[in-house]
Amino acid sequence: MKEKNPNFFFELQLEEDQSIKLAFWADARSRAAFEYFGDVISFDTTYNTNRYNLVCGSFVGVNHHGQSTFLGCSLMKNEEIESFKWLFQSWLRCMGGNAPKRFLTDQCASMKRALEACMPTTVHRWCIWHIMKKIPSKLNRYKGHADIEQEMSQVVWNSHSKDSFDRNWNDFLLNFGLADNKWLSDLYEDRHIWVPIYLDHHFWAGMRSTQRSESMHSFFNKYITRNSSLIQFVKQYDNCLGSREQAERELDAADFHTLIPCATKSCIEAQFQDAYTHAKFREVQAQFRGKANCITRLKNSALGYGKKYTWNRSC
């Protein structure tokens, strides 16, 4: 791969018997894409190559069409802290030492500690979907566990400030007699890396979970079987990237040659129409449609304290 593509990057760590312990690689396309789409990264290691008992991890970003884009791939024999440190340092070297602003992973203590060491300025977020999915198995021994699950979801999703989350969480624990539950206590200690109210003021490119990475693993399955050799794995990975790149090119061409009409007469909407890709403009346009029949009225104005407006929808 390196001979065909000078910008292909790879690093390898072997065991004493010369078997693979750790491997990371990224081609020129992934390295170039990172410069544009490397602000927010999703990383997941739930895909197993099976034949060699190596865990595959993928670094995934979001491109200008809202599509998932590959930003590197890894193979790991174990998921220990030092292994993740090696991997993240290798990935950073590949990307010119530029750490992303945001990093989304599954709930994993080893990854958390490795990220703190390798990317101390990056905001780390745990996948909330995986955490909420664990509630039944973690709390099913309690009486009324269905009510517990529902109430916990309410607290997590409907607390609109950090203080209200703290109050609601404490009330939730007291009401259900869960104050001594270690899993919940640990979650509360780490609330700053998974509870929405602590994180949603940051830009996350529309991601709250690692499902983009997992969907990319599903995409892998179209190219790779459990019996694929490592050489086949790398080659098919390259084919997979080629397929994604072709899909991006087709959308780029459609954006260049076609135009989505504005839904309103707003000059601001027209600016978005000119600057955004079709996929992103459709998202903005939906908001413009929702406000098309609204009238803005000044509610009150106080010198030095700004102005407050109300929205009224006309029929």
From TrEMBL:
It comes from Arachis hypogaea (Peanut). One of its GO terms (biological process) is regulation of DNA-templated transcription. Its main location: nucleus. Belongs to the FHY3/FAR1 family. This is Protein FAR1-RELATED SEQUENCE. Residues 40-134 form the MULE transposase domain. Putative transcription activator involved in regulating light control of development. Keywords: Metal-binding, Nucleus, Zinc, Zinc-finger. Pfam families: MULE. One of its GO terms (molecular function) is zinc ion binding. GO terms for cellular component: nucleus. It is found in: Nucleus.
